[in-house]
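User: two proteins, same treatment. go.

Assistant:
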Amino acid sequence: MFHVKRGFGFSISGVCVINPLAMFASLLLPGLGFVILSTQHFSNQADKAVFVHFMGHVISISNQKGGVGKTTTAVNLSASIAAGEKDCLLIDCDPQGNATTGLGVDPTTLKQGLYDILIGDMPSEAAITETLLPRLHLIGATRNLIGAEVEMVSMERKEFRLRNAIAALRQRYDYIFLDCPPSLGFLTVNALTAAESVLVPLQCEYYALEGLSQLLTTVKAAKRGLNPALRLTDIVLTMYDSRNNLSRQVEDEVRAHFKERVFKTVIPRNVRLSEAPSFGKPIILYDIGSKGAQSYLALARELIGRE
C-alpha cells in the first residue's frame, strides 16, 4: 500500500514506484495536481504509467436553521485555510449573498456568479472572482440567484447541476466550500449532491439542537437518494459563551452524542467577528489578534489535520 499526502491523500493497492521525473515535475509545477506512478500488480499485467489526480475536498456548510454562524464560518474558515497556503474556492449558494459581501464583493455589481453556472450553462471558471486573499477565490451570488430555484423546477437532473459544474475545479483547488441557504430547496439539495462531506455550524442554544435533528434527516435522505459518497456530519460549535451554563450544557450533550464528529475548536461570541462583514473582510484581515480570528485559524488547522 502506498500513500501520498498533500493536504489530502489516496491509496493504491499493489507495488508502486514513483517516477522520479514526475516527482520533480510535481514539485516544480504543483498546480498540475498529480504525480505519475509506475505500478506493478501481482497479476501478469504489464507495467504502466498511471496518472493519479489529487482531488480537492468539497464541503457543504449547511444548517436549515438561520442565524447559527453558517456564513461567518464559510467566510472565515475558507480564508483561514487559504492563509495556510491551500487553494480555496468559496461558492455562495445563498441568494442573500452574505458570503459574497463578506469577502468584499458587491453582488449588485457582480457580472457572473452561481446563477450563470446553474441556469446559463456558463463554464465555472468564467464565474470565479478574486478576493483580498491570493489563494481564496469566490463564485458569488448575484441578484438573479433569487429566482434560480423556480427556474430549475423543470430542468432534467436539476439536483446534479452544481456537481457537474464544479467537477473540473476539484483538480484546481484543495478545498471547495459551499455556503448553503438556511432552507431545503434546490440550491441546498445541489450543494449536498455536490459535496463529499457536510460541516454543520451549531449555535450553543436549545433550539439549535432541534434544528440539528432535522438537518441530519435531510443529509441522510441526500446520501440515500442522490449522493451515496456523502459523509455525515462534522459539527463546529459556534457563538459559544463559557460564562453561560446553557452553552456548556449544549456542548456536553453534543459531544456525548456525536463524539469525534465534533471539532475540539469552538467559536466564541466575539464582537470583532460581527464587525468584520461590514468592512467586507474575513476576520483574519480585520483583526487577526481577536479571539474570533484565532478560533477560526485553529479550526482550519484541525480540519486540515482530519483529512
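Protein 2:
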Amino acid sequence: MNAKPKVWLNDKIIPWEDAQVPILSHGFSRGSAVFEVCGTHIVPGGVAAFRLDAHLKRLEQTVSLLDMELGFPTGEIAKAVSKLTAINKSERGVVKIMAYWGEEAIINLVLTSKLDVAIFTIPATEELGLDGVKPLSACLSKWKKLHPETIPVQAKACANYLNGYLVRKDANDRGFDLGLNVGTDGFLAEGSIESVFIVKDGILKTPPLGRILASVTRDSILTAARQSDIEVYETTLVKEDLYTADEMFTCHTGSKVPPILRFEEKEMEAPGPVTVKVAEMMDDIMSFKDTRFKDWFQMLYRN
C-alpha cells in the first residue's frame, strides 16, 4: 500500500500510523484480541461487503464465548464499516475488524472493561492474493488442533492462531504450501486459516462444526452447493480419507476454492470436476451471475 487508508478507532477516523496500542496492552501482551475479516467487492452501483452480517454475528459469538463485551454494538460497527469504506474509497479488498483491550495490563489477567474496536480497509494487492487461485500443495502437520475443552475453537481469537502459525510453519519447513491438522481425537480438523473439503466418488465432504472455526466461506459453499445439485456432507474424516480422496480444496475469506495439487506425496487432479463445479458456482455468486444469493452482499456505499 502506498497511501495508507484511514482507520476507524472507537468512533473516530484517524491516520493509519496513529492506530497503535501500548506494548503492554492486554490485547498485545496477553494475546486476547479478537477479529473478523470480510471481503469487499465492486458490485453494480457501488461497493459491497460479502456477508458482513454473518461476520458480525460471529464476532458477537466470539466475545460471548470468551465472556467479553464489545465497546460498540455490531449495528454501529456495520455503519462504521460503511462510513470508512466510503472515506477510503475502498473497492476490491478486505475489511479487518479488531476488538481488543488497549489498556496496559502488567499484572491483571482478567479485565472487565469493554473492548476497544478498530476497523481497517485493506485494498487488494498481489501479496494479498484475493482472486488469484492457483493449485497448492498440502501435508498433515505434526501439530494437533486445539481441543475445544481447552479453549473455544469457534472463537476467532488471535491467540488461537498460534496453533495455525505452527501448522503453517511446519508445512513450509517441509516444502508444502499448507498444513492440515487433526484433532486429539484423530479426526480431520482444518488448516491454519483454511477450511478443507475432499471429494470421493463425486461426493463433497467436509468436517462438521464443533472442533473447527465456523467459517463463513465454508458455510457459503455448503449452502450454495445444496441448492446447486452438488451432493455434500458434513462428516467426520480421518487421515485415510485424505490419502484416498479424488479431489481436495480449501477455502477462506481471501480465496474461495484453491485446489490441492499434491497431498503429501500423492499427486491429485487440481482442479477436479467437482472442484471446478464448486469454483464456478462461487464465481457466479461473486460476479452476480447467480442472483439467488444477492442478499449475501451488503452495500457499503454507492458510486
